[in-house]
Design a protein that fits this description.
about 120 residues; mainly alpha; elongated
């Protein structure tokens, strides 16, 4: 149970750190809410992504090695790592485009939701 507990502890600590950073570093309350919702949606979607990737890897592994007399048992694991990485990156971009499409990068100035990061814009 050690490695699993370590993984969940790291996952939890990272979430708390991100939430704290958003609250302290983002001045606009609307942007804070958008980013906090984004973080929690992304955490759930990464679990969904992992489950989907595991299932898809199982289908691929059975098709490739289902009737094989000999196989490299690391091959399905390597495929799973690559598959999960690609699907997770794609899902991150998709969900971000849906949830925070107009958040901006905080450099536009003014008081619009696009100027969400505390501090002056570069070049001023």
């Amino acid at each position: 149970m050690g490695p699993t507990s370590d993984g969940f502890e790291t996952y939890g600590v990272t979430g708390v750190a991100l939430i704290t950073f958003i609250i302290l570093a983002v001045a606009n309350p609307v942007s804070q809410v958008q980013l906090l919702v984004w973080i929690f949606v992304m955490r759930v979607m990464m679990i969904v992504t992992s489950i989907f990737s595991y299932w898809l890897n199982d289908v691929i592994a059975k098709a490739r090695f289902g009737k094989a007399e000999k196989m490299n048992f690391e091959a399905p694991l390597t495929t799973l790592v690559w598959l999960t990485s690609i699907v997770s990156i794609a899902m991150t971009y998709l969900i971000s485009a849906l949830i925070i499409p107009d958040l901006g990068d905080g450099t536009s100035g003014g008081s619009s939701p696009r100027s969400s990061v505390a501090g002056p814009s570069p070049g001023r």
